[in-house]
C-alpha cells in the first residue's frame, strides 16, 4: 500500500504519537488540549492532520464516541471501513482485525440492489477483563 509509506508531517507525527500512547480513544478537544503543549495551536491544523491520518489508515474515528484511535494493526487495510468492539462497562475499544466483513456486507447489499462502499461498525458488549468480574 503506497499511501502508508508516505512521510508524515511533524503535526501528523505528533498527533499519531499522542494517540498511540493513549490507552483509550481520544476526543478531538482532548487531542487539542494535549497538542497545544507541543506547539500546535490551531484546531484547524489538528483536524487537518487527523483527516490525513484517517485517510492513510493510521488513525480511525469512532463515530458514536466522536473520538479517535491509533490503528495498532500494521496490516490494516481499513482506510474507510472500520469495525470496533466496544466494552459497555469500561469503554475499552478494540479494533476487529482481519475481518471479511466488507465482502460480506458487499454481498448482502447486492441482494438488496444496493452498492456497498464502506461501513463503520461498532459492536457493543463486555471485554475480557469485565467479563471475568461478573
Ligand atoms: Zn485499523
Ligand atoms: Zn471492559
Describe the structure.
By secondary structure, this protein is of the alpha+beta class. The chain has one domain: Arc Repressor Mutant, subunit A, CATH 1.10.10. The protein has 6 helices and 6 strands. It has a 3-stranded antiparallel sheet. A 3-stranded mixed sheet has the order 5-4-6, with no helix packed on it. Helix 2 (10-21) crosses helix 4. The longest helix is centred in the middle third of the chain and has 13 residues, at 43-55. The radius of gyration is 16 Å and the shape is globular. The chain starts with a helix and ends with a helix. It binds zinc ion (ZN) (2 copies). One zinc ion binds at residues 87, 89-90, 92, 126-127, 129-130.
Comma- or semicolon-separated keywords:
alpha+beta, three-stranded antiparallel sheet, three-stranded mixed sheet, 6 helices, 41% helix, globular, binds zinc ion
The name CATH uses for the topology is Arc Repressor Mutant, subunit A
Question: Order of helices and strands, N to C?
Answer: HHEHHEEEEHEH
Unreliable spans are: none
Strand content: 15-25%
Helix content: 40-55%
- Estimate nothing, just give the exact number of structural domains: 1
The largest pleated sheet is described as: 3 strands, antiparallel
Query: What is the CATH first-level class name?
Result: Mainly Alpha
What is the CATH architecture assignment? Orthogonal Bundle
How large is the count of helical segments?
6
CATH homologous superfamily descriptor: Winged helix-like DNA-binding domain superfamily/Winged helix DNA-binding domain
Mean pLDDT: 87
* Beta strands, count: 6
**What structural class results from the helix and strand content?**
alpha+beta
How would you describe the shape?
Answer: globular
